[in-house]
Amino acid sequence: MNDYIQTMRALIGHETLLTIGCGAIIENIEGHLLLQKRIDNAMWGIPGGIMEMGETFEETVKREVLEETNLVLHDISLFGLYSGKSGFATYPNEDKVFSVQIIFQCKNYTGSIQLNNESKELCFFARHELPANLNPTQAPFILDWQQGVTLPILK
Asked: What pTM was computed for the model?
């Protein structure tokens, strides 16, 4: 957990905290999507995380993807901006968040995939083979990718 979230949690407890998340739709050469099965909830989602103070959106997504996958992203582009009901979440410890999501797309990356302490599994999936247990806060952009949406999305 970053310092900002720890500081805010000390002030507001479990009440809803507004966060900015950045994630990446990462495709391999076959056009398959990289998904991460998280240890904390056993659900599949894209790599990404919460912006830290002073970071740009690009710095956030690149840092989070490197931490979670060991991949270095190159030539990222905006996939979509997501907000609304799917951005609300309550964690097992009862912390509540509303997250605005800035989602990038990337087909150009270097490195070899490695698990970290947040990941149970990292795997590429074809559009027609997505796992059933998608993280509900990430399902909107994963399903937009599955349907072949190509322009930046505002939801």
From this structure: 0.92
